[in-house]
Amino acid sequence: MAERQDGGARATTPQTTTPQATTPHEADLDIAAAIEQGRTALGIELGSTRIKACLVGPDNVPLASGSHDWENQLVDGVWTYSLEAVWTGLQEAVAALLADVEARYGVRPTTVGALGVSAMMHGYLAFDEAGELLVPFRTWRNTSTERAARELTELLGHNIPLRWSVAHLYQAVLDDEPHVARVRHLTTLAGYVHRRLTGRHVLGVGDASGMFPVDVATAGYDRAMLAAFDERAAGRVPPLADLLPAVLPAGADAGTLTPEGAALLDPSGTLRPGIPLCPPEGDAGTGMVATNSVAPRTGNVSAGTSIFAMVVLERPLERVHEEIDLVTTPAGDLVAMVHCNNGASELAAWADLFGQLAAALGQPADPETVFEAFLRSALDGDADGGGLLAYNYLSGEPITGLEAGRPLFTRTPDSRLTLANFARTQVYSAFGTLSLGMRVLEREEVGLDAMFAHGGMFRTEGVAQRLLAAALGAPVAVGRTAGEGGAWGIAVLAAYRAAAAGADVPDLGTWLAAEVFASAELDVVEPDPADVAGYAAFLERYDAGLAVERAAVGALAPRETTARTTTQES
């Protein structure tokens, strides 16, 4: 739910990367001309811990970026972000991008060929007729919808996860929340931002499939399921189809940047209105694009605040599985998603702690250096983590049946407590719940030719990638854009929108293979047999120890009703 790259650094200002002044080269002059002429694409992604803007050139290679770190808040038991924080962060990320472009190429862009917005999926953003937010944004991280998800799964014959938008709406109905009668529009975070920029209530099919089930044959919401929901909720809310955004596939016309939208995005007035936008997408979809994983039998793992695996299916699954979400690619193909609420956050927290220790010893180091050193030490650990056990549960975890989380580290007296074993155990813990979910796809005999990985964890070469290969028992590929995250993925989708407007273009998968990844460099790591055996021993211990985590949830209540969290994200 995508974009922290710095291993846990807590920046409070926009971030840019400014090169040292050099004599302009011919290539730089060509890039400057492309920027001035708008032969570029801009992608903006609102991840759980960072808002990032990425500008790509005519060859879809990143040219510049800008970002803004932000924090979700736990307010009255609800994980949320304020809408004011959304716009402050967007404006600062775009301002940082424009400054980065000017520093690198000596020009300040006033337009781009196309623009795209993506964000963390799911959650609940409910508006009234006037467009006013009715209750604070309930993010994907909230797990208070168990009854609604269970009843809807039974009603629809389709797994409805706790974090899906329709689960949040129906839970509000079940709880007789006063605002329900006033709901007139529902959307995701990407859909909300897109509507403010363009005036259009639309959503990319991948993001839409995390609000309500999509029929892949029609690339729209499943009509029979809509009718079933409407019958169940009759008299409480308007017909669901009237509330949900219209569904669009990749490459479709999703509107243009209005004068009001341009002023919201860039109050300086540098960016002019009229820029075409691609359909807004979720971070799962941009992760598939960023790893060229949109064709059947391909898959990817995105590791950030959450961690999830996406596998594009050749055929529907045999039956409903509560561990598996069925969503789609941005082109509308069926995808099996194993989504875990907790990913790399605990790794970043421990790296922060070790950084504080280094500073206390008079040897301060920047957070990224500390994170990399901590991560690399995992390679020297015992294959099974030395008998140590950790849970990275900052929040509830539906796959393992936990409504809340308590980060936990424990060991037996005969375990081997070393830094290397501790680091390896923390990395294993980030993959533990994912492995339990992937077992379901193994039993369904889902075909998978390639698994790609991306996110901040994979910037440290050869560590998380090697241990993920052990966890999956399959080769894992990482590309040079592995750390670019979803902002690059949505920039590529914006470029696809621009290409689709000018001429007939092939389907998204064919276009990505030819125009974006034809010369991509991939590093593929095969699973090491010793690591595979060691991880299997760890996972057996991890599964058995879930009783300890459940006891911790029951025994340890949160200290405060309001809290903030800053975590590493993909």
TrEMBL record:
Composition bias type Low complexity, residue spans: 11-24
GO biological process, any: D-xylose metabolic process
Keyword Kinase set for record = yes
GO molecular function annotation: kinase activity
Q: Which residues cross the membrane?
A: none
> Which InterPro entries does this one have?
ATPase_NBD (IPR043129), FGGY_C (IPR018485), FGGY_Carb_Kinase (IPR050406), FGGY_N (IPR018484)
Keywords, in A-Z order: Carbohydrate metabolism, Kinase, Transferase, Xylose metabolism
Residues forming the Carbohydrate kinase FGGY C-terminal domain are 300-497
Domain annotation Carbohydrate kinase FGGY N-terminal: ranges: 41-265
- Region called Disordered, residue ranges: 1-25
Q: Which family does it belong to?
A: Belongs to the FGGY kinase family.
Identify this protein by name. ATPase
Q: Which organism is it from?
A: Promicromonospora citrea
Please spell out the taxonomic lineage of the organism that makes this protein: Bacteria, Bacillati, Actinomycetota, Actinomycetes, Micrococcales
